[in-house]
Amino acid sequence: MVALQVHFLLIPSLMSIMGAAQYMMQDAALLSYIDQRFLSLEKRLEKCNQDVLEYADEFREFSKTVLSRLAGLNTDKAEVKGELENLLTRIERAQRDIDYFGSVRDSNACVEVHEDLLKQQLLEEAEEKKRLKLMLNASCDLMLAGIRSLKVVKKTGGKHGSWMKDPGKKHAKIYLLNGSVNNVILEFANLTTFMENNQTLKARRVPLPLPWEGTGHVIYQGFLFYHRYGSLNEIVKFNIQRRNVADQMLLPGAGRIPAYQLSPQTKIDMAVDEQGLWALHAEPETGGNIVVTKINHVAMAVEHSWDTPCSSKDAEAAFMACNTLHVVYNSPSGGSSRIQCVYDVLDALNAYINPGLHFPKRQGSHSTIHYNPKEKQLFAWGDGSQIIYKLHTEQKV
Predict the structure, then answer these.
(1) 78-103 and 2-71 are packed helices; what angle lies between their axes, rounded to 10 degrees?
(2) Number of H helices, E strands in the chain
(3) Hey, which of 75-89, 282-296, 330-344 has the most confident mean pLDDT?
(4) What was the pLDDT predicted at 188?
(5) What keywords are annotated for this sequence in UniProt (predicted)?
(6) Which ranges of 72-142 does DSSP label H, i.e. alpha helix?
(7) Are 256 and 283 in contact (CB under 8 A)?
(8) Helix, coil or strand: residue 9
(9) Among the listed residues 242, 345, 251, 253, the one whose alpha carbon sits nearest the alpha carbon of residue 296
(10) Which whole-number Å values give the CA distances from 357 to 93, 148, 254, 336, in the listed order?
(11) Percentage, residues of the chain above pLDDT 90
């Protein structure tokens, strides 16, 4: 009888213990679920935090690089001082933005671009396009339709070099710059003098205080514009008549890789067309594609830059004509040159690859090809020969 009473007393206790165990299991499952969700959120927050930190570190390194390069500029010149102040202001503003992002990096919210901001950006882009058309004179409506013939004027100098006329002057002087590193310009009275056998004896020698690098220099309005030897991206403006350096500038992003794969000696290629002075170079950030920059030759300042779809791979040279980049390609062993990429900076949507423009039959390679907008001809240097190509142009559609 006693045993039966004990049995009945134990049953409620056991039921209570089993119920408590069941609730504990449910609580444990809930806690596990909450813990997993928090782990997931923490991982996402950690990734956001890491991305912001990496971007901040990268920008700080870039700021140090820019500031160290700017420190070497001649701060006594008013124009350079203005550029320095502008660049420093932009760097400080960006640094403040970086510091702000660092202070809110623990936020789990992603910043989204508002529709009104996108509309504003589109309006600004449209206004910028109008400004560029005014700056570049949209009346330049010719396009290259073919290369009619070639004339080998002379064979003098080494494999690399350049020769040209000054399209901004009325005189007929010829300038020859031999080699990819040198500091002497040879000036001839005219093409006839240049073609004579003893032409080097009749040349006026113009020494440069700073040597050039590559073959991408041009002469415009009485000044030689060239990439300074030993510098990353310094462009020198040299007054040929007075024989002194008139100005200097840095070309952002340039100088790290060759402008053209088949002409590795040239990191920055200067160009002249109907609109004035340009600079052509390639950047790693664009995948090696060529970047076009319009330069104000008076102030020695960048007016605008365009990232083009034209690759520097297998390119040997390029030139500007009527706001349009023409990139010349060849084979590494040398062969028949051809224009395979054309990019109009005012009509970027109509950039086209392989337009079928071939140079007249001539096996070899070009060290330099520059357009003369006054004579509508190309002045080229090919394997030590000085060549003139005549162009066939048509009205743009």
Answers:
(1) 180
(2) 4, 20
(3) 282-296
(4) 95
(5) Coiled coil, Disulfide bond, Secreted, Signal
(6) 78-103, 115-136
(7) yes
(8) helix
(9) 251
(10) 47, 10, 28, 11
(11) 52
| Rounded Cα–Cα distance for residues 148 and 5 (Å) | 120
**Quick one: tokens of 309?**
């779809």
**Which residue, among 303, 305, 301, 316, has the nearest Cα to 283 in the 3D structure?**
305
The model's confidence at residue 216, banded by pLDDT at 50, 70 and 90, is: very high
Alpha-carbon gap, residue 142 to 393, rounded angstroms:
6
Helix (H, G, I), strand (E, B) or coil at 28: helix
Q: How far apart are CA 192 and CA 172, in angstroms?
A: 10
Report the C-alpha gap between 18 and 132 in whole angstroms.
82
CA distance linking residue 227 with residue 32, whole number of Å: 65
CA 366 → CA 145, 267, 353, 362, distances in Å? 20, 15, 20, 11
**CA–CA distances in Å: residue 348 to residues 145, 179, 313:** 18, 35, 20
**Burial of residue 182, with CB atoms counted within 10 A of its CB: 0-12 exposed, 13-18 middle, 19 or more buried:** middle
pLDDT digits (tens, 9 = 90+) for 158-188: 999 999 999 988 889 999 999 999 999 999 9
Give per-residue pLDDT as tens, 78-114: 566 666 666 766 676 666 556 555 544 444 444 445 5
- The model's pTM is 0.68
pLDDT in tens, 115-154: 666 666 666 655 655 556 555 655 678 889 999 888 999 9
Q: What pLDDT, on a 0 to 100 scale, did the predictor assign at position 363?
A: 77
Q: 201, 188 in Cβ contact below 8 A? A: no
Q: Report how far residue 240's alpha carbon sits from residue 69's, in angstroms, rounded to the nearest whole number.
A: 27
* Cα–Cα distance measured from residue 271 to residue 280, given in angstroms and rounded to the nearest whole number: 7
Choose among 291, 281, 382, 270: nearest CA to 330: 382
Mean pLDDT estimate for the chain: 83
Cβ atoms within 10 Å, residue 346: 18
Which of the pair, 65 or 1, is modelled with greater confidence? 65
d(CA 41, CA 59): 27
Type of residue numbered 349: L
233-280 residue pLDDT tens: 999 999 999 999 999 999 999 999 999 999 999 999 999 999 999 999
Pairwise CA distance, residues 382 & 369, whole Å: 9
